[in-house]
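Why should sequence recovery work at all? Because a backbone constrains its sequence more than one might expect. Tight turns favour small or flexible residues, buried strands favour hydrophobic ones, and helices have their own preferences. The token representation captures these environments compactly. In the example below, the structure is given first.
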């Protein structure tokens, strides 16, 4: 397998539209990188440039230390798995998997050995003599992956491969791809708009918006320490709560006033006063994850400040129940144990653990603390 270096990559189309605005990403040999973002963020364009399907306006793409900007796709030693599977309908599964081997003039006996090994790895040996029309969506995706694996490329590129599958099958295929990565120790770049895929599958996540990498890091780093409002709101399900507050500084401590159904309450924040002194009395955005606001029994040893909150909405999910209250006019989601949940219109004592809360500048979205 190979490392991948993306250095200062820009893409400007002939109409002057700049799609990528200087992307820098380094991936070590064997790492699994997720490119995640909404539509128009530039993630698929970047993947296509790595594949050689899009030209580079400026910057360099290096695979295993070699600049590949001007190399055609066939000379980059990459394998790509598409959303549409891109299987040949007239060929059997066996023939589809072996297609790249045929192109490379691999001897027939070796082809048969490789196809058998790949089919066993993906648990599709019993499907080898079927055609794509006779397969389910998940089976077709396995065949597309098998065709990629059979070539033993330096780099695997996945372009939203699970988008056409139903929810249950997506979960199963996520696990399949992750297990495949662990077995092959492959270098993978995977594009998705689904932040759950990003959190569960990758070693590294690059969160993209408007052609810019907003943050690059491990899933846990990005979840716990989002760089800005966009990342904080995009990563996490349910997403981070955002509450507009005005910090009050008293000595070395920071407080905010919280209005809940006409009752004013005061919350102490875990930030150092020096970080927020310039924002005292000004509106800022407090970010709190739903699991940081919970019922008193679920808080266990992490009991924070206790507030009585009026509940507007109750959403059972099975293992948890999500409650919605309103704080300073913002809808706030809380994650509680099902047996502790109250009914809409009732007040419930909730524990606020703000040890991992974040503070953002509403003007530019950047993190303050």
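From this structural description, the recovered sequence reads:
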């Amino acid at each position: 397998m190979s490392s991948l270096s993306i250095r200062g990559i820009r893409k400007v189309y002939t109409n002057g539209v700049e799609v990528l605005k200087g992307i820098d990403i380094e991936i070590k040999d064997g790492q699994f990188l997720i490119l995640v973002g909404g539509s128009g963020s530039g993630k698929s364009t970047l993947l296509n440039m790595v594949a050689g399907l899009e030209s580079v306006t400026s910057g360099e793409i290096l695979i295993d230390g070699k600049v590949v900007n001007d190399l055609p796709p066939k000379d980059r030693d990459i394998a790509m798995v598409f959303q549409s599977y891109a299987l040949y309908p007239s060929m059997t599964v066996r023939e589809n998997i072996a297609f790249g081997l045929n192109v490379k003039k691999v001897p027939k006996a070796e082809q048969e050995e490789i196809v058998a090994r790949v089919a066993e790895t993906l648990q599709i040996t019993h499907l080898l003599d079927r055609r794509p029309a006779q397969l389910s969506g998940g089976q077709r995706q396995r065949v597309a992956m098998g065709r990629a694996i059979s070539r033993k490329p330096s780099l695997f590129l996945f372009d939203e491969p699970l988008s056409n599958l139903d929810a249950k099958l997506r979960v199963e295929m996520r696990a399949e791809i992750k297990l495949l990565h662990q077995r092959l120790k492959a270098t993978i770049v995977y594009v998705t708009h689904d932040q759950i895929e990003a959190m569960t599958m990758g070693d590294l996540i690059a969160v993209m918006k408007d052609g810019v990498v907003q943050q690059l890091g491990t899933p846990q780093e990005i979840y716990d320490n989002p760089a800005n409002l966009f990342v904080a709101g995009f990563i996490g399900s349910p997403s981070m709560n955002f509450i507009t507050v005005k910090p009050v500084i008293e000595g070395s401590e920071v407080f905010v006033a919280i209005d809940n159904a006409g009752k004013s309450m005061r919350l102490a924040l875990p930030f150092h006063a020096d970080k927020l002194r310039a924002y005292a009395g000004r509106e800022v955005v407090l970010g709190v994850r739903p699991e940081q606001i919970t019922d008193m029994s679920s808080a266990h040893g992490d009991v924070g400040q206790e507030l009585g909150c009026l509940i507007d909405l109750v959403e059972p999910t099975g293992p948890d129940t999500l409650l919605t209250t309103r704080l300073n006019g913002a809808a706030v989601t809380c994650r509680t144990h099902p047996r502790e949940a109250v009914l809409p219109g009732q007040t419930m004592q909730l524990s606020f653990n703000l040890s991992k809360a974040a503070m953002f500048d509403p003007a530019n979205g950047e993190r303050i603390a």
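A few observations help interpret the result. The radius of gyration is 25 Å.
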